[in-house]
Specification:
alpha+beta, GMP Synthetase, Chain A, domain 3, three-stranded mixed β-sheet, 8 helices, 3 strands, 16% strand
Length: 154
């Protein structure tokens, strides 16, 4: 038996590359970024990277899925959304927003999922597995993944 921290790189693969972690952070903070009224009406879909010849840093564009009416409302808040996203990452990392149209009769998906509490034994086992992870953000993400796996197995 090996520790979870040793097997993470093999298991996670592309899921933990920077752009997927970045999209995950945006999804986790989505309600704070766009506000309660628009959080369920628009969803972040993906981040596109484009490297310019004269710049060393790639430019990132966030794609947001929304109906045309909601995209119009979000368009007026574009600068505020970019500012809030870049506060999460600490620099001007996302440089643009593109809206992807979704039909207005399509029901929006909610990211809320009812959570069953873990038992004390499950919490102890999970924390023991993550004991050697030094990065706090990675530890919390792995803890969340572990909790989800344990809850799905119930």
């Amino acid at each position: 038996m090996r520790r979870l921290s040793e097997a993470t790189a093999k298991i996670a693969g592309k899921s933990f590359e920077r752009k997927y972690v970045a999209l995950g952070r945006i999804v986790n903070n989505w309600r704070d970024i766009v506000g309660e009224k628009l959080a369920d009406k628009a969803q972040p879909v993906k981040i596109d990277y484009r490297k310019s010849k004269n710049k060393q840093k790639p430019e990132a564009t966030l794609e947001i899925a929304a109906t045309s009416a909601d995209a119009t409302a979000l368009h007026y808040q574009k600068d505020l959304i970019l500012e809030r996203i870049n506060q999460i990452f600490g620099d001007r990392w996302v440089t643009g927003i593109r809206f992807v149209n979704v039909p207005s009769n399509m029901q929006t998906k909610s990211f809320k999922k009812p959570k069953a509490p873990l038992t004390e034994g499950e919490k102890k086992t999970l924390s023991d597995m993550l004991l050697n992870i030094e990065d706090g953000d990675m530890r919390s993400r792995l803890e969340h993944l572990g909790q989800s796996i344990i809850m799905d197995d119930k």
